[in-house]
TrEMBL record:
Protein name (record): Short chain dehydrogenase
MF terms (GO), sorted A to Z: oxidoreductase activity
Keywords: Oxidoreductase
Entries under InterPro entries matching the protein: NAD(P)-bd_dom_sf (IPR036291), SDR_DHRS6-like (IPR051122), SDR_fam (IPR002347)
Pfam families recorded: adh_short_C2
Length: 199
């Protein structure tokens, strides 16, 4: 299979590439690194990416920014960061990317445990992750040509504990390699509209 990994240079993206690398042809895209560069907040940039990659068998998105901060200080502009980036960025990837998938292809997006287990300073992340999952459920019943769409919802990954650990007191972390297995289930499995939780 030819698999496009958007966000392939991040912690999770690298684990996904390692998971698939021996069995499939991997093409990577990132904001500043990878085989191709893409700004997922820009429609033309996403279109350019897919015109450059050509047809693929699977699209995996492990990218997207969020805003973390106290609700009492949060502005609509700050809240919009997650909406425009992780939410609409991944939706944009799916909407444009579906036309570049071969028949029977798949799309796998990324949400996170905060969709179900809110944390302090994470209102934006809870909203965005839950919305990504809602989009996947809705899109799954409409995609043509046997195309499937799923979402992986990981807990905080062990490799990111230094940066994000304080936001997740008492949460059990998962190694990125374990999370990457869920992307394989999505790509090589038969299900659609699923939220694969790795907690």
């Amino acid at each position: 299979m030819k698999i496009l990994v958007i966000g392939g240079t991040g912690t999770l993206g690298k684990a996904v590439i390692k998971e698939f690398g021996a069995d499939h042809k991997i093409v990577t895209a990132g904001k500043t690194h990878g085989d191709f560069q893409v700004d997922i907040t820009d429609e033309n940039s996403v279109k350019t990416l897919f015109h450059s990659t050509g047809k693929v068998d699977a699209i995996i998105a492990t990218t997207g920014s969020l805003h973390f901060g106290p609700l009492v200080e949060m502005t609509a502009e700050q809240f919009n960061i997650g909406l425009q980036n992780k939410l609409l960025g991944q939706v944009r990837i799916a909407l444009i990317g579906q036309s570049f998938l071969n028949d029977g292809g798949s799309i796998t997006l990324t949400s996170g445990i905060i969709a179900d287990e809110p944390i302090r300073q994470g209102a934006n992340a809870t909203t965005v992750n839950a919305a990504v999952e809602g989009f996947v459920r809705g899109a799954a019943i409409e995609l043509p040509r046997g195309i499937r769409i799923n979402v992986v919802s990981p807990t905080v990954v062990e490799e990111s504990l230094k940066a994000y650990g304080p936001f997740f007191p008492g949460f059990e972390a998962a190694p990125a390699a374990r999370v990457a297995k869920a992307y394989r289930r999505s790509v090589e499995g038969a299900q659609t509209g699923r939220v694969y939780k790795v907690w």
